[in-house]
Structure prediction request, 611 residues.
Amino acid sequence: MAQLLAVLIDGLIYSSWLFIIAVGLTLIYGVMKILNIAHGSLYALGAYSAASLAGYWIRQGYPPMGSYAVMVVAAILVGLVAGPVIERGLLRFMYGKDEIVLVLVTYAVFLILEDFVKLVWGVDPYFIAQPYGLLGNFTVGDLTYPNYNLVLFGAAVFIGVVLAWVLTKTRQGKMLLAVIHDREMSAAMGINVGRVYFITFTVGAMLGALGGALTAPMISVQPGIGAETIVLAFAVVVIGGLGSLPGAALAALLVGIVRSAAVHYRPELDLFSIYLVMAVVLIMRPKGLFSAQEARKI
Amino acid sequence: MKRDPTLPILIAGSIILLALGPFLPRWAMFLINVSLCYGIVVLGMLLLMRTGVVSFGHGLYYCLGAYAAGTLDQVFKISDMAVMLVAAVIVTALASAALGLLLRKYRDIFFAMLSLAFSMILYGLLVKTSALGSSDGFNVAASKIAGITVAGTAVDRYVRYALTVVFAFIAGVFMHKYLNSHMGRLAEAIRDNELRVEYMGASVRNVIHVNYVISAVLAGIGGALAAIAVGHIDPEMAYWTTSGEFVFVGILAGTGSVLAPLLGAFIFETIRSFAYEYSPNTWQMALGITMLVVIMFLPGGLWSLFTRKRKAA
Prediction:
């Protein structure tokens, strides 16, 4: 029983993390039909910036509680710089090309940013563990968890709710849905599609960086974390159905629980379990759990 | 019609490489060997790209071929290169025939993602299999070829090198013939318009399945040859970035000719080994920029530079 509880709690924490790293990816795909491999680099950029800025903050002797704000600000800054540069500087010349070509374009951006990170931060790992332990712990039965995990869970729920609210209840969100539904028609109706793309990509980039920033205190920030994370985000997004927000949430939950069960009962199946879920879901529902049917065109 | 120079070039190239082998310095021999292994894999990517599907998981077969060869040595104490290659072909053919049953229904991103999932499953398994060295992998000692011991002899390196050259030659000729056959020509038709191909009475799924198996077996052969040449294998071969590199070289080289992947792989490996040496932290950046330039200005890959010039002349 205690182990089952541990599986559930670990699963929920892991699901929260998965949702945070995947939500930006699914947003960008939903609107722009770009499966953005560079999302992994944005994650890495967010993690590195948060680690160095928060590290600086703490070394200066400022109140350690402020480091959370610093991490979020770091992520927003990364999104505000990298998003526009990639979208305006490159992607906007590529719209209308094949989806698979766009994947390769973002793969190229990923390669470039991987080395950019190495050039700026070097190849040695960064540690910024203080924010992880700062909030104290909570106990369930005889298990102890850092409260930071609650922050992660809260952030996931917050991001999900805000995005859902923006998409369904606001004017901007409805315009966005119109663009998703029919790009040309919404352009004809006076929606500035270019601006919608620009804003979507920037927000998506910010979410990717935020994922990295929130993860930074829990890991050693080193080269390769982007590559590791992006495939997990792919798995979540593809399982949920590309571009679907509720799909991403459900998929994160599914993958999170399955992996945590695997880690607890059959640790050797850790990574394997995630991609097994992905393969099984794709075999059962070729386009993911939540996906719209498309017409075949001649 | 002008005569197609592909076959003469393949024959001449192989003869030159075989004749030149003994005089090459060790590093050059190794470089050519490894890049031809890569080239064989990318030949398979060319076939898939011509069919209009892109696999982001061919590391699966590259790794499977290498591990089929390596496990023979590690577990069954069989260190004959010929047996290793046969094992790699059988294992990858069976695996791809089975997975192809599923993959043939998928296109575009979903084909790419499902194949990526399969390769990551293998990666996840191998990383946790301590009998096969977990994430460190293990050393492969391929000491014999068809019963004759070569390890430790003067011709050791040359035999491994020649083996790869011969296989690259066979793979190149096969692919050239195949692309000009009935099935091969259907591939491009499918890329252009699948539905029309169906209306004309050909089975799109069968063609995709067959091409998938062929490309997987080529990847397996490439993987086994790489294991024999390098002498070490690890699960990184199935990681998604390895598969990404195959796609990368395929795009870079272009699908215009079977010579393109072989040449492209050589250029790629040369750049990589020199870049590793001189600027280990910027070579991926250079690759990324090259890729963007190719996608933007040379959609047909570097190979289209040759054909364009020939048309003008």
Notes: DSSP finds twelve helices and two strands in chain A. Residues 2-32 of chain A form the longest helix (31 residues). The longest strand of chain A covers residues 137-140.
